[in-house]
Amino acid sequence: MKFFKKYIFPALYGLLVYFTIRLLHDLASDSRFWERNWVLNTFEIICSILIGYLSIIIFERLFRYFDHNLQSGRLNYQGVGKELSLFVLANLVLVNLIFLPMAAFTDDGLSWADVADLIMIPTLYAIIYYGIVRSSNWLKAYVDNKVLLEKITNEHLETELKFLKAQYHPHFLFNALNTIYFQMDEDLAGAKRSIEKFSELLRYQLYDQQQQVPVVMEIDYLNSFIELQKIRSSDKLQLKVVFDPQLNQQLVYPLLFLPLVENAFKFVGGNYQMSIEAAIDQEQIRFCVENSIPLVSFNETKTGGIGLENLKRRLNLLYPDQHSLTLQEETDRFKATLTIKYER
Question: Above 80 in pLDDT, residue 233?
Answer without folding.
Answer: no
